[in-house]
Automatic annotation (TrEMBL):
Domain of life: Bacteria
Positions of the UniProt region annotated as Disordered: 1-46, 452-471
Keywords: Plasmid, Transferase
Organism ancestry: Bacteria, Pseudomonadati, Pseudomonadota, Alphaproteobacteria, Rhodobacterales
Listed PANTHER family: SULFOQUINOVOSYL TRANSFERASE SQD2
Gene Ontology molecular function: any one: glycosyltransferase activity
Gene3D superfamilies linked: Glycogen Phosphorylase B (3.40.50.2000)
Start and end residues of each Glycosyltransferase subfamily 4-like N-terminal domain: 60-267
Protein's name according to its UniProt entry: Glycosyltransferase family 4 protein
Limits of the Glycosyl transferase family domain: 275-422
Length: 471
């Protein structure tokens, strides 16, 4: 089928040959293996696991993964505590045996202007909450796992976690650890950013989705994080969701020696295989924010005259309706509801404008036999096309995008092949939930081994001093 970009790769050139089934880089030069498989090579089992995240409730995304890990780890017999920036309330996790504590904060964008400006740079209440909990209730064998921090907790969380950095694991669900705007994406120019974060060129670049003042605020936040917490060679392990994230994170100052690949857990939306070749609609599922590319998809679908269904909410809803008058705007849908929509779709489209690090919904769709049309800048694009499970397109070229969609709709035999290939390819693009949890346990075992000296008398004295100082 024409119109696709054969063997498309991520912007740094990391193609499908860089990984093996299970999603672990074994190229020799790149990030180390996730080492799924229980306690890891150290043989040291972690003690209590303390998960730190902005939110205690989720509709998916990074928070969904953080909370899934809490439940799965508790089911495996671990003692799990979730320290959250919000109220720390989740009845399902409590029922699963997870202890939740909350700082009582709110999303930075829901606060007043001054509170958002200052609290987003340094949330003193969140820092005090974490510091006090560690001093009063922390144990020498605890292992800490930081997930999301940019929406409530702020860079202050890194200062609060500094005393336990040897027993800390940090998850890179995005690029906020390195890039001020979190995506290595120039919003006004709609292009991937190749600048070094916080360089003179970066500071001068007007790349923010809102305005340059907002960019400078993001720069200040990044400078504060770096001033209070550095990722040195002996620092916390950083878990990446795709190997192609490595050069982006390294460009932002994270040492390659601290980077480990642990792909996201994936469960197909449904089984058996969706007969995609018999369906006539395209599906988009995700946030309706500019960087997610749904507006570009709407324009291409309108030009191609194809049926488009959009499951999601966000600020671009009105613009999408205007661009594609026949679009079905379905609002936010649960995972089960998306599974029903997937059974009626010919393909799922992931048209992200920025370098999409993973795209969980895409792999979930592939697993049930739904071909994926991905932006060529998505890190999964090369793997999808190499497997013959979908297309990679230039989402900025609306004419070419529309032509690819038209050919997809016209080629039933080609779609049937892609559908069968998708089912076969999906297991290599993500991990089963069980293998993912194995990988987390292995990372925690390594953190426990790094923090083993904390059991020494000298370290005990330091911990006692920390508790005394916190009072």
């Amino acid at each position: 089928m024409g119109g696709l970009v054969p063997g498309a790769v991520s912007p740094d050139g990391a193609g499908p040959g860089a990984t093996v089934p299970g999603g672990v880089d074994r190229s020799g030069d790149g990030p180390r293996e996730g080492l799924p498989g229980g306690p890891g090579r150290s043989g040291r089992r972690p003690g209590r696991i303390v998960i730190v995240n902005d939110f205690s409730r989720a509709r998916g995304g990074a928070t969904g993964l953080a909370l899934l890990s809490a439940r799965m780890l508790a089911e495996r017999g671990h003692e799990v505590v979730c320290l959250c920036g919000d109220a720390g309330e989740n009845a399902g996790l409590t029922a699963a045996g997870v202890t939740l504590r909350g700082a009582g904060g709110a999303h930075v964008m829901s606060r007043g202007r001054v509170s958002a400006l200052l609290g987003g740079l340094w949330n003193a209440a969140a820092a005090r909450f974490l510091r006090d909990w560690i001093a009063a209730e922390g144990r020498p064998g605890d292992v800490y796992h930081l997930h999301g921090w940019s929406k409530i907790l702020s860079p202050s969380v890194f200062a609060a976690l500094a005393p336990v950095r040897d027993r800390l694991v940090v998850h890179a669900h995005d690029f906020f650890l390195a890039c001020p705007n979190g995506g290595y994406w120039n919003y006004p120019r709609e292009e991937v950013c190749g600048l070094t974060p916080l360089s003179a060129a970066c500071l001068a670049s007007r790349c923010d989705k809102r305005n340059h003042g907002q960019k400078m605020w993001r720069v200040a936040r990044q400078l504060i994080r770096r001033a209070r917490f550095t990722f040195r060679d002996s620092g916390p392990e950083v878990l990446m969701i795709h190997p192609a994230m490595a050069p982006f994170l390294e460009r932002g100052g994270l040492p390659a020696s601290r980077l480990t690949v642990l792909r996201n857990p994936v469960t197909p939306f449904r089984a058996p295989r969706v007969a995609a070749e018999a369906n006539r609609s395209l599906l988009f599922a995700g946030r309706l924010d500019p960087e997610k590319g749904a507006l570009s998809l709407a324009r291409a679908a309108a030009r191609a005259g194809v049926r488009l269904r959009v499951a999601g909410e966000g600020p671009q809803e009105a613009a999408i309706r205007a661009a594609c008058p026949g679009v079905e705007m379905l609002g936010w849908k649960s995972r089960a509801e998306i599974g029903v929509l997937a059974a009626e779709a010919r393909a799922l489209v992931m048209p992200s404008l920025y370098p999409e690090p993973f795209g969980l919904v895409a792999v979930e769709a592939l697993g049930c036999g739904l071909p994926v049309v991905a932006a060529q800048t998505a890190f999964l694009a090369g793997e999808i096309t190499a497997a013959g499970a979908g297309l990679a397109v230039d989402v900025h070229d609306i004419g070419g995008f529309a032509a690819a969609l038209s050919r997809l709709m016209a080629d039933d035999a080609g779609v049937a092949r892609m559908s069968r290939n998708a089912v076969a390819a999906a297991p290599a693009l993500g991990l089963s939930p069980e293998a993912w949890c194995d990988g987390l346990e292995a990372a925690y075992a390594r953190a426990a081994a790094r923090g083993a000296p904390s059991d020494s008398p000298a370290a005990g004295a330091r911990a006692a001093s920390l508790r005394a100082g916190a009072g």
